[in-house]
Amino acid sequence: MSFLGDMLAAITERGRALVDFTAMPQAANPVEQIAALSRRLLSSRGEATSLATAAEIVGRYRQLDEAGRLEFFEMLLADFGPDMEPLVSAARAFASAPDEDAAQRLHQLSEPRRQNLFRLLNQSAEGTAELIRMRADLLTLLRQRPQLTAVDKDFQHLFRSWFNRGFLELRRIDWRTPAVILERIIRYEAVHEIADWDDLRRRIDPPDRRLYAFFHPRLRDEPLIFVEVALAADMVSSIRAILDPARATLDAATANTAVFYSISDCQPGLRGISFGNFLIKQVVEELRAELPHIQRFVTLSPVPLFTRWLSAQSFARKPELDALLARPDWWTDPKASAEAEPLLTALAAWYLTGQRDADARLLDPVARFHLGNGARLERINFLANVGPAGMASSHGIMVNYLYKLGEIERNHEAYASGQAVAMAGGVRRQANAGAKLLDQTAGETGAK
């Protein structure tokens, strides 16, 4: 990769010598200049000049402020879509004489020109990384300009091809991994914050801990996504049991369970490009090859939106529960905990398995991910994360999803076809209790 980067840099410099980028119209604003360079790039035929022009566009984009970047994406939307007149002509030709040649021409002309522009920008030495950053900028702007979704769809179309499983490399991260990668692991951890280097070492160095990450050959030392794994003698029900600095280290030879307790996406610009399902399945294969005696693979997963959902519900015992949860440190009081546990676990089970949005999707994003991958919701864990973040997001609830190797594909197919999600019998009973809690208000209202 270093050799290829050096070669691209050399070709780019030769191209710069052939193109006078200072000769842009002085009246044009920066985005208009980028538009002119983009049209030049799309019509360019020489490799050196193409690479130089791509690098120039990327460099000029990087200098834009937020307003300039918004104007840039609006320019891509307005000026670099499909060429409509030839497209209409090709559509008419296909309708009158549908054959392979007509279909191919229609396909070629229907592709927005900005897709080809992104491909050409990707050829520059840091093109892939710059396009990912560019999409991250676009995602923040979509909130105020939803019409830019068309541009985002072009990014997604290309990224799904460039970042498919065949191009990804799985690496185990340990204490011998280069410091630049370790520093990024600390920075990118999104589920359970890594406090410092000592905390990181406790997660990757002991014999009962593993961390695996996916990398792409064009991004060198930039992880795309990583998963942290604890080897255990049983299914773990609290995050403290995993992260406690004073915990006893387990001999990996005596472990029978692998617990996936944190999955972190690292690149905001790749949001929506799925790696996690491939990651978990490949890590399972890695662990089975290294430690064949491990037969149980589970997660210890957060329920990040449960508190928000619960606050919006109305049911007969809601005032009672709200008053209890409003007490400072209620979870440290055995009596209060005993009162809260059956209510919170029942409502969490129903939230995770029974509630759907307008598109018939489960509300919880983590549940959608694991259940969609073929896991089974195995257990609801009360007060599994009593840290500030855990209490604020889920009242301390965490859950175990079980990846039972003989059931994964069947569960996935059932989920994909809209059938009831896979869950253990105990969770099903809790979910039924949660549904009854929520139904009580509707019943009482009807009776009145």
Can you offer a commentary on this structure?
This protein is of the alpha+beta class and 448 residues long. It has 3 domains: 2-162, Malonyl-CoA decarboxylase, oligemerization domain (Butyryl-CoA Dehydrogenase, subunit A, domain 3, Up-down Bundle), CATH 1.20.140.90; 166-299, Aminopeptidase (3-Layer(aba) Sandwich); 302-447, Malonyl-CoA decarboxylase, catalytic domain (Aminopeptidase). The chain has helices at residues 2-18, 30-43, 47-62, 66-79, 84-96, 100-110, 113-122, 127-141, 149-162, 179-188, 197-204, 240-243, 276-290, 306-311, 318-325, 334-353, 365-372, 388-394, 408-416, 425-447; strands at residues 169-172, 209-215, 225-232, 257-265, 296-299, 301-302, 376-381, 398-403. Helix 7 (113-122) packs across helix 9 (149-162). The longest helix is centred in the last third of the chain and has 23 residues, at 425-447.
| Unreliable residue stretches | 442-448
Tally of helical runs: 20
| Terminal residue distance | 73 Å
Q: What share of residues is helical?
A: 40-55%
Largest sheet: 8 strands, mixed
- CATH fold assignment of the largest domain: Butyryl-CoA Dehydrogenase, subunit A, domain 3
Taken from the alpha-carbon principal axes, the silhouette is globular
Look at the helices and sheets and give the structural class: alpha+beta
What count of domains describes the coordinates? 3
Gross CATH architecture of the largest domain: Up-down Bundle
What's the total count of β strands?
A: 8
Order of helices and strands: HHHHHHHHHEHHEEHEHEEHHHHEHEHH
CATH class of the largest domain: Mainly Alpha
How large is the radius of gyration? 26 Å
